[in-house]
Amino acid sequence: MKKFAVFSGFLGSGKTTTMMALTKYYTENHAKAAMISNDLGHGVSLVDNKLAQLSGCNATEITDDCICYVNEQLAGVLNSYYADGCELVVSDIPGFGVGALEHVYHGLTEKFPGQFELAPFTVLVEPKTIDLLKDGQSGDLRYLYDTQLTEADLIVLNKCDLIGEDEKNAKLAWLNETYPLAQTVAISAVTGYGLEDLALALRDGTASMRKPDIGYGGEEFLFAMSKMSELYVQYMATVCCDDFDGNAYLMDIAERVKNEIKETGNEIPHLKLLAWEPEGDYGKVDLLGTDRSIEVTHRFERPCVSIAVLLNTSAACPAEKLEEIVTKTVKEISADYQLEITIHKKEALAMG
Ligand SMILES: Nc1nc2c(ncn2[C@@H]2O[C@H](COP(=O)(O)OP(=O)(O)OP(=O)(O)O)[C@@H](O)[C@H]2O)c(=O)[nH]1
Ligand SMILES: [Mg+2]
């Protein structure tokens, strides 16, 4: 079997965490699996890919462009994974994944007929997003949330560890009623709950290849996209003292960025900060919006003397403003911790 699935879903819904958990689970319980992280920065290293590699996953990245527009490059990566014995490969998609069904699934099928077996087009959603959609409070983002789910063959309700059984069932029932063409599974990428259901849905299911009318490129889509920007920063930091607390350092950066973005009235759906030292110890911090608390997703176990840092973020904020806030924050907090930093890559992209 040479199965491939795209994992779409809103920023922070847990695509990367799920792909990491699934590829490990699938490899241990079914057959060899691998993952691809895809994003738009030019010549950058992605937090998601570095994280997957640090945690021992079979992972690679495609940068510079969306897999929507580089079908040949994607096919090359898939073929090398299959040649290596993989039977399932999953990839995420930059931005919001809207239009991926057409550009990736139909693109691959037209250019490479019969070569790849496409698993259900998979869309992740977290409980909080369903609340927003149900209450009609999703504002400008409603179009994106709804369109993603409309395209899905398989909807994955992730982060079920955060809700009880009754709430999970109510949310699944709402999804089944609202998006009747999609199959649903409930999982927690963090606890591993539901991973067997997800594995079987991908192994046994096939893509419907249906083309729902999503108004791609229309006014609502362009309006939602026009607000978004992305920022990629890579730097090295040398530590001068022997009690440097990498976890506190990453938390402080995320906290200050959150407060500064909040002050401007903008929103930051996902900020990822990953730092590692030469021995492989690493810390990861995630911010999922100005109204949420910061999560330490992985902790440094020991004090460290030099670290490499990757920061990737998507924000509903003008690109220059985002870059200004993040750069200033990194410099100030690094100075507070007496770190000497060398920024060797920085790119801000406006999505609109
Ligand atoms: N409680 C809980 N948290 C989760 C789960 N899955 C992911 N998360 C957390 O949600 C945050 C975002 O997860 P990611 O996997 O980075 O989300 P993503 O969809 O890849 O985000 P983008 O790459 O920005 O699109 C991280 O802090 C994760 O630890 C889950 O099942 N339960
Ligand atoms: Mg991700």
Q: What does this 3D model show about the protein?
A:
The chain is of the alpha/beta class and 352 residues long. It has two domains: 3-220, Rossmann fold; 228-350, Alpha-Beta Plaits. 38% of the residues lie in helices and 26% in strands. The protein contains eleven helices and 14 strands. It has helices at residues 15-29, 47-54, 71-83, 100-111, 127-135, 142-151, 165-178, 195-204, 219-226, 246-263, 319-336; strands spanning 3-9, 33-38, 59-62, 88-92, 117-118, 122-125, 154-157, 183-186, 229-239, 267-276, 282-287, 295-298, 306-316, 339-350. The strands form two sheets. Strands 1, 2, 3, 4, 5, 6, 7 and 8 form an eight-stranded parallel sheet that branches. The model has no long low-confidence stretch (mean pLDDT 94). Guanosine-5'-triphosphate is lined by residues 9, 11-17, 48, 158-159, 161-162, 188-190, 270, 286, 288, 295, 297, 314.
CATH class placement of the largest domain: Alpha Beta
Give the uncertain stretches in residue-range form. none
**SS strand fraction:** 25-35%
Mean pLDDT: 94
Shape: globular
CATH fold call of the largest domain: Rossmann fold
CATH architecture descriptor text of the largest domain? 3-Layer(aba) Sandwich
Q: How would you classify the helix and strand content by structural class?
A: alpha/beta
Q: Helical content, roughly?
A: 25-40%
Overall tally of structural domains:
2
